[in-house]
Amino acid sequence: MVKVSVLMPVYNLEDYIEHAMESIFNQTLKDIEIVCVNDGSVDNSYNILKEFASKYDFIKVFSQENKGAGPALNKCIEEATGEYIAFLDADDIYVDEDALEKMYKYAVKNDADMVAGNLKFVEDDYRIVDSHHYKRELYKFCDKETSFSPSQYGIPFAFYKNIFKREFLNENNIRFPPYKRGVDTLFLARALVNVDRIYGIPVWLYGYNHQVGGGFNKKLSDYDFITNFFKVFKGVFDVFYEAGFDNLAYEYKKELFLYLRYKDNAIDWNIYEIVMDIFGEDGHYFEDYLDDYNVFLASQWIHHVYECPTEKLLNETREKVLKLNLLENKKISKDLMRKSFILQTADNIDDFTRRYLETDYLDLRMKYEKLVDKNLKLKKKNRKLKNKNSDLKKDLKQQKKLTKMYANSLSWKITSPIRVLKRKLRGR
After folding, report:
1. 329-338 CB contacts, 8 Å cutoff, 24+ apart
2. Do the bridges between strand 114-122 and strand 198-208 make them parallel or antiparallel, or are there none, so unpaired?
3. pLDDT for 27
4. Which end of the chain lies in a sparser environment, N or C, as judged by fewer CB atoms within 10 Å?
């Protein structure tokens, strides 16, 4: 049995595989295997993987039709034979060359089911930069050798900065959901509620290429992916609530509402219908986030009247929004409050749509005026800097002229031997 199996799902990442492989080869821990699953790539990824496998007998390559990240990762686990399991996406890298070795030794020393390291971000040019996750304190930073309870881990992000005992995953049937994206949080949530202690060690294991992976909103680029992500959110909530990890469910819920408040998501009726379909219309999943949830409902309902204007919908929505008691809501924005007022006071649907449109126009006008004002301030600042630069150039030119005159003066030439003597004396 090898010490660590590194699992690598691959889908259309031909330009990155070599970098990922190189970071594994550079690890000081050599008793490893690399298990790759090509998930129906249509570029040259599979051929690159096969070429690596032909050169190194510790690399195993499997291929399947495109099923998504979840099934590909589960296939990796099934084919792994290592005592411990580590993960590496093909567009990411390992950072510290001794990270796997230190984590493995610490795992064996403590008979640990899970060992946590730390995470860095990687730019497209493979520069290593700090992760903003730690600034937001999303999950625990391991600054020393330690152990902590799973409830202290933080929200279930960055599963790949940890290694897991393979036997632990198999005994507890911890696997990824069968979705194409967003599967890692549910996998880690299942691990957290089953592990007794997490052992942390101060190494930088993982380099996450956030330029390729993208942020949360970049990933949710179509409604199929959004549906998958929301199903994962619900799955994580269910796992945490069943295990009594209510605090982690509460913290993780913040990430969902960050998305629901993002740009146009708050008025996208398709997203509203997905939320209702997955979480139900009674809102019991969001009782601890009632203000945020009511803001989401009001935003969606009011904008839906504007998109589908009928007298019946206007009157029905008035009654529903009135029950939300938005005047007592601490999370409501001025814009939503104005639109709610328009909803309640409009004489008819035509009056509502006209005033609603005027509100949007005024908001755009205010944003435009702010941009113009900002641009004027920048221009003014730029003029000041240009004037200052011009003055500095004049001063420099004058200084050069004086220096030249001084160097050519008779007194300067006469005192030259004295200056040379002083420099020699200082050099003793």
Report:
1. 329/291, 329/294, 329/295, 330/291, 331/291, 331/292, 331/295, 332/291, 332/295, 332/298, 333/295, 335/359, 335/363, 336/295, 336/298, 336/299, 336/302
2. parallel
3. 98
4. C
Q: Which amino acid is at 14?
A: E
Domain boundaries of the chain, sorted by first residue: 4-214, 223-345
Q: Which of 9, 31, 32 is nearest to 20 (CA)?
A: 9
3-state secondary structure of 209: coil
For residue 243, the surrounding DSSP H or E stretch is helix 223-243
CB 113, CB 168: distance < 8 Å = yes
Assign 256 to helix, strand or coil.
Answer: helix
E strand intervals along 95-169: 114-122, 128-129, 146-148, 162-165
Three-state DSSP at 41 gives coil
What is the four-CA torsion angle of 28, 33, 37, 42, rounded to 10 degrees? 50
Can you give the pTM of this predicted structure?
0.81
Task: List, for residues 329-360, the tens digit of each pLDDT value.
Answer: 999 999 999 999 999 999 999 999 999 988 86
- Which of the four pLDDT bands, split at 50, 70 and 90, describes residue 421? low
Q: Do 201 and 142 form a contact (C-beta atoms < 8 A)?
A: yes
CATH of domain 4-214: 3.90.550.10
**How big is the CA angle at 256 (ends 240 and 234), to the nearest 5 degrees?**
40
Contacts of 200 (CB under 8 A, 6+ apart): 115, 116, 117, 140, 142, 144, 145, 146, 147, 148
- Answer with the residue of higher pLDDT: 370 or 374: 374
